Fold each of these.
Amino acid sequence: MKEIKIGFKTVQIPRIGHEPDLLAYGKAYRTCDINLTDGFIKCMNNVVKIRQDEKGDFIDLSTIRHNPFRGLGKVYI
């Protein structure tokens, strides 16, 4: 897992592949849950993509249904 901070919260991004530091760049994958400091919010069957722009790598939280952080949009990792 790669953890990123959103305010005081922590979001875990699952790793894929055989390399321990390999993330799913440009590939869609299912996320198991969003790990919050005050508990777990399950986001099963949601597809998240890690994308790149001129600022770097980011995930788009607006694509996750039932996500309290949808309004944040891009979160850089």
Note: The radius of gyration is 12 Å.
Amino acid sequence: MRIGKHALSRRQFLSAMGVMAGAGVLALANTECDPAVVRRLAQSRNAPPLQHAVWVWQFSIDGAVGQIAPTLAENNLAVVVKTHDGTDWMATYDDVPGAIDGPSQVATIAGLFERYGVPFHAWAVVKGIDPSREAQMAADVLSAGARSLTLDLESDPKFW
């Protein structure tokens, strides 16, 4: 093998690759991984096959969590719950007790669905008015237990 004007033997090439791989391992060994990432990796190893999901917009319209979860479990379905719209948690629009008003309520609802064996996923509308706040809310939703977060990009404020 030639690199520029220098010829490398196969042994030299493999030795160099070994050194580079070792350096990479050392670099990774000295980093700390976010607990949410560790949890996701563990989930992905034990994840059941992909399944169909039901999207829940507002509990006041679609039904209470206690009604939805057992029905989805009986039918081997996952759930995708709308957690926020822009920088507003869904409790702004959903007036039932227990509507999502922040990360702790996301954790409560995620836990309920997951206890029924219903994989909990989330979705949110992003508006770009306060990107930092929206990014933090997205991170909070994932840290609170959502397996994934789908971002809904709508064309204008009166999309619906």
Note: The mean pLDDT is 84.
Amino acid sequence: MLALPWLMALATAPVAASPRIEAYETTSQAGDSDDLDKKDVERRSKLEGCQLVPYASRRDNCVTESLGLGGGQACGARPCSRDTPKLNPVLLQAWKNCADRRGFIVDDYRDTLAAIGRYKASAKYEDWTADERAALDALTGKIEIARRANTKGLSNANTMAFQCERLIRGGGG
């Protein structure tokens, strides 16, 4: 039971607010819109996770939301249990935090894929070589895989939060 006070302190410690870009703000660099740099696309197609995102603001948001995501205040929280009724509200908050942050990450990947789609439909894409197009296709594929993985993580977090809420309402916390 030594871990309970430590977990309570950890879970109630203030967490810095993420500097999210609001829906009405642009997520592209000034003057860039959905533009892509061919060399950056090639380089990013060899990376993983948030570093795949070729738009700085979206990438920064993704990285910010990913920091500590596996920790006890988010997706690394243990499941709620009848054996820990006093801890369950703290665990519920952690799972809600996980779901919120996963949702932001999914949005970053989705918005990136949409921007790439708009770019590919523009005249600027017409002068790309076959190798450059292949690199963009590889990048797009990896971003889609990352989006799906985070969508699954979001679904799992929502399930854990729902189970916690149900347990708490039923008197288990």
Note: The two ends are 16 Å apart (CA to CA).
